[in-house]
Write a structure and sequence with these properties.
Blueprint lengths: L1 H10 L16 E4 L3 E5 L4 E6 L15 E2 L5 E2 L2 E11 L2 E9 L11 E6 L4 E6 L5 E5 L10
Antiparallel strand pairs: 1-2, 2-3, 3-6, 4-5, 6-7, 7-8, 8-9, 9-10
Length: 144
C-alpha cells in the first residue's frame, strides 16, 4: 500500500478523502491466476494484474516482466476505494491505475460482489469488466 501511495504522489495524482468503510468481514487477499486484490478492513484495496505487454525497447513501462528468479512481475497496479456496502457487495471506484489494457480504468465505478460459494467477482458498474476472484479457502476454484 505504501508503494502505491508513494507512486501516486510521484505522478501528482490526488486521491479524494472518503469516510472509511468497515470491510473487515471481507478483508484479505482475493485472487486468481492473473489478478490479485488486497482489501484492507477500511475499504481500501490494491490490485496487481498482468498487462499482456512484455517490457522491452518497444514497450515502455508499465509492462510485465520476468525477474531473475523467473517469476512474472505484473505491470498493472491500481488503487481502489470502496465507499458503500450493498447486500453481499461493496461499491466504490478506481482511484488510480496503470492499466494499458482496460482492466481497471482510473475513475471507473466498480463493484466487488461476494458469492455464496466463497468466491467474489470484481466488475465495473456497466459490467464491462468481470473478474472472478478466490479467497484463501476457495483458491482451487480460480485456476491456481
Amino acid at each position: 500500500m505504501v508503494a502505491v501511495l508513494v507512486t501516486l504522489l510521484m505522478v501528482g495524482t490526488a486521491v479524494a478523502e472518503v469516510e472509511p468503510l468497515d470491510t473487515s468481514g471481507y478483508a484479505g487477499r482475493w485472487s486468481n491466476k492473473h489478478f490479485q486484490l488486497r482489501l484492507t478492513d477500511d475499504g481500501h484495496a490494491v490490485a496487481e494484474f498482468g498487462l499482456a505487454v512484455w517490457c522491452g525497447p518497444a514497450a515502455p513501462r508499465p509492462c510485465d516482466e520476468i525477474d531473475q528468479d523467473g517469476t512474472i512481475q505484473p505491470g498493472g497496479l491500481a488503487a481502489l476505494t470502496f465507499t458503500e456496502a450493498r447486500e453481499g457487495a461493496l461499491a466504490g471506484r478506481v482511484d488510480w491505475s496503470t492499466s494499458r489494457n482496460g482492466t481497471l480504468t482510473t475513475g471507473e465505478p466498480i463493484v466487488l460482489r461476494f458469492r455464496a460459494d466463497g468466491t467474489a467477482e470484481l466488475g465495473s458498474e456497466g459490467e464491462r469488466v468481470r473478474i472472478r476472484l478466490c479467497g484463501t479457502s476457495t483458491a482451487g476454484q480460480c485456476g491456481f
